[in-house]
């Protein structure tokens, strides 16, 4: 009796083939789960599912693209851009990936880069109305109004009832001083959606510029009926009323504009003019003075350390909300864990000096103690030493690159010091690693 043995190389090929098939099936199931969660609005769940799909098959462009969409829906546009980059690297002909990356770049005010992405999307899909629309928006942001006008017109040529493009073209015509031409665009928007307050407000503003003050007031009345908190419409209506010498009526509108936007210096100026017309010169002087001082580039600005949106007080609140991974650990021979936990206790009774000394000792005894670096970084941040805190966070991440809370805290600190891009990328990484409070911070401070 003979026994036949297959060569080891054959068995290895079978094993690799089976493993590869399993990985593809697993990636597909995670991908479908991500699509389902996205459709139901569970973008955090979708993000996690697409991450699992990428782990099983890291060469699948749609997984990166859809994870980018999930991040974008969580307002993590920096993180989304990184995923779109990878999707495009794997499939350079995907027009939607360029379009979506352009949208996320525009959300970060990187309009020049967004414009390039929209142009590439148009090359790949020349009949996509949205690509022209978004490129027009980016051109408008860059004050390239004639180019924007062409893009909005192309959008409308492809989709004649594209309300956003019609409205945007009307606004762009105003920027080009074509107030008469803007009227037709606003009128079309109103025809398509009679409840769109911005269209009445836009047409009213154009009518003011065309010196048709009563018609302007009629439109602005409708705009404020639909959107009673629109300070700019109150201002424009006040201006129209003052042109018709209804100074008391204009003052009421200017009052409302100022109540809604305390820095509306044009409203202070207009109210000062109306006050002067009814004999209140002291009041007029006060308003003119305020108009001069608000948003005046000639005023010197006070230098501040915290020059991001996250101020010192905000930083303290967000950072202190971090749940430290302070769970009991076996005591090693060097007893660094005892120093670490004693530091935690000392910090809770506000013995910051003693806590810092214990953390220093824990790190001296165990230079790979990532939690000790992180906790010392938190204490340094609380004491105002933000640069020292960042150094400790860097050390913690070198030791544990998946320490999500450290990315979160480092992101907050970097943002508070004015490094908005670096801070928001850290917050994005923290969220990607599963620390969900990062997405609240991203929503509040990165968009």
Automatic annotation (TrEMBL):
Q: What SMART domains does UniProt report for this protein, alphabetically?
A: TPR
Instruction: Specify whether Signal is a keyword of the entry.
Output: yes
Q: Where are the TPR repeats?
A: 27-60, 61-94, 95-128, 129-162, 163-196, 197-230, 231-264, 336-369, 370-403
- The source's domain of life comes to Bacteria
Q: Which UniProt keywords apply?
A: Repeat, Signal, TPR repeat
The yes or no answer to whether the keyword Transmembrane helix is present is no
Could you say which residues form the signal peptide?
Answer: 1-23
Q: Which Pfam families match?
A: TPR_1, TPR_11, TPR_16, TPR_8
Name of the protein in its database record: Tetratricopeptide repeat protein
* Source organism (scientific name): Larkinella bovis
């Amino acid at each position: 009796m003979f026994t036949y043995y297959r060569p080891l190389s054959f068995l290895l090929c079978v094993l690799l083939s089976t493993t590869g098939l399993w990985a593809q099936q697993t990636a597909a199931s995670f991908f479908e789960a991500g699509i389902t969660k996205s459709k139901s609005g569970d973008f955090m769940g979708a993000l996690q599912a697409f991450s699992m799909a990428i782990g099983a098959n890291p060469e699948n462009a749609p997984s990166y693209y859809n994870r980018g969409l999930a991040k974008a829906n969580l307002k993590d546009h920096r993180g989304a851009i990184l995923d779109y980059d990878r999707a495009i690297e794997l499939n350079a002909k995907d027009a939607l990936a360029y379009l979506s990356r352009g949208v996320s770049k525009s959300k970060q005010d990187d309009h020049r880069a967004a414009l390039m992405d929209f142009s590439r999307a148009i090359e790949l899909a020349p009949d996509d109305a949205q690509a022209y629309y978004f490129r027009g928006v980016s051109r408008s942001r860059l004050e390239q109004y004639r180019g924007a006008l062409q893009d909005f017109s192309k959008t409308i040529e492809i989709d004649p009832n594209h309300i956003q493009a019609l409205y945007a073209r009307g606004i762009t015509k105003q920027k080009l001083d074509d107030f008469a031409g803007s009227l037709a665009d606003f009128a079309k928007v109103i025809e398509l959606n009679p409840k769109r307050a911005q269209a009445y407000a836009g047409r009213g503003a154009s009518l003011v510029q065309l010196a048709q003050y009563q018609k302007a007031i009629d439109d602005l009345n409708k705009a404020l009926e639909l959107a009673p908190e629109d300070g700019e419409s109150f201002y424009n209506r006040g201006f129209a009323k003052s042109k018709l010498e209804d100074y008391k009526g204009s003052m009421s509108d200017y009052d409302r504009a100022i109540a809604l936007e305390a820095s509306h210096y044009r409203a202070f100026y207009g109210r000062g003019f109306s006050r002067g017309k009814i004999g209140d010169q002291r009041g007029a002087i006060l308003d003119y003075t305020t108009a001069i001082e608000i948003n005046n580039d000639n005023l010197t600005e006070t230098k501040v350390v915290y020059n991001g949106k996250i101020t010192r007080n905000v930083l303290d609140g967000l950072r202190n909300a971090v749940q430290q991974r302070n769970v009991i650990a076996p005591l090693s021979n060097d007893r660094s864990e005892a120093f670490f936990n004693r530091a935690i206790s000392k910090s809770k009774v506000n013995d910051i000096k003693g806590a810092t000394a214990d953390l220093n000792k824990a790190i001296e005894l165990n230079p790979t103690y990532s939690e000790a670096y992180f906790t010392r970084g938190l204490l340094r941040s609380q004491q105002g030493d933000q640069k020292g805190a960042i150094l400790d966070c860097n050390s913690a991440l070198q030791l544990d690159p998946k320490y999500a809370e450290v990315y979160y805290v480092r992101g907050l600190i970097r943002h508070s010091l004015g490094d908005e891009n670096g801070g928001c990328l850290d917050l994005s990484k923290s969220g990607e690693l599963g620390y969900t409070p990062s997405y609240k911070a991203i929503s509040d401070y990165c968009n």
